[in-house]
Amino acid sequence: MSALALILTLAFVLIPLFLSKTLQLGLEKDTLIATVRSIIQLFAVGYVLQFIFDSENILYIFLMVALMIGAAVENARKKGASIRGITWKLVLTFVVIEVLTQGILLGLHITPATAQYIIPLSGMVIGNSMVLGILFLNRFTSEVSSRREETELILSLGGTPKQAIQHSLLASIKASTIPTIESQKTIGLVQLPGMMSGQIIAGADPLQAVMFQLLILFLLLTTAIVTSTMLGFLSYPTKFNERMQVID
Question: What is the 3-state secondary structure of the chain?
């Protein structure tokens, strides 16, 4: 893609700006900020990745993955501010997800142990884990709040905190994973995924592109389930005090 072609793609930014202005949605500032930030951040990352790929230094790979995890934690923890220790819970969850997925990929020699594969796949996994974490935390805090009386009733009847909050916990895990599962049901019919489309546009064999896209889909499925489950079981004890009373 040429620089001119990239500039022309800004037409896709002008359309939402026009609609926001016309309908008085008030999204112009946020849209402009998002556009400028995306340009700066992606070009900066592009140069960093080029340097890392050329050097093939394992330390740089670790630092890049650590940066991804740090940024994901910083963004997701705002949604779980009411949960004590949410920062370390998110760190632990993202680290486990990264170790689990890369352990399988590299341990079974599915992908080469090079920066060209580790960093993009880690970015997809951590980014998806962050989104799923946010979805879970939003739903979980809402469920706990709306079912407070039910939870307290179970506790008053001699139930344990886990028994009292089980319905809210499982409902939140299920709700946060549904989008990932449902999107996989219609993949290839309703949409062609970004990675697959990008490879095809770049001239790759469509069947090779399909196999890589399936790899990503299976990774994201594991990411969704493990993220929600880990965050759920790490978070629910913080909703009770030492006297087994529900706290905000």
Answer: CCHHHHHHCCHHHHHHHHHHHHHCCCCHHHHHHHHHHHHHHHHHHHHHHHHHHHHCCHHHHHHHHHHHHHHHHHHHHHHHCCCCCHHHHHHHHHHHHHHHHHHHHHHCCCCCCCHHHHHHHHHHHHHHHHHHHHHHHHHHHHHHHHCHHHHHHHHHCCCCHHHHHHHHHHHHHHHHHHHHHHHHHCECCCECCHHHHHHHHCCCCHHHHHHHHHHHHHHHHHHHHHHHHHHHHHHHHHHECCCCCECC
Is the model's pLDDT at 190 over the cut of 90?
A: no
Is residue 132's pLDDT more than 80?
yes
* Cα–Cα distance, 128 to 126 (Å, whole number): 5
- The reported pTM is 0.79
On whether the CB atoms of residues 79 and 70 are closer than 8 A, the answer is no
From CA 157, how far away is CA 46, in angstroms rounded? 58
| Cα 238 → chain centroid | 23
If one counts every other C-beta atom within 10 angstroms of the C-beta of residue 103, the result is 10
Interatomic CA distance for residues 245 and 68, integer angstroms: 37
What's the rounded Cα separation, in Å, for the pair 136 and 140? Answer: 6
Q: What is the pLDDT of residues 46-81, one digit of tens each?
A: 888 888 888 878 898 899 999 999 999 988 888 777
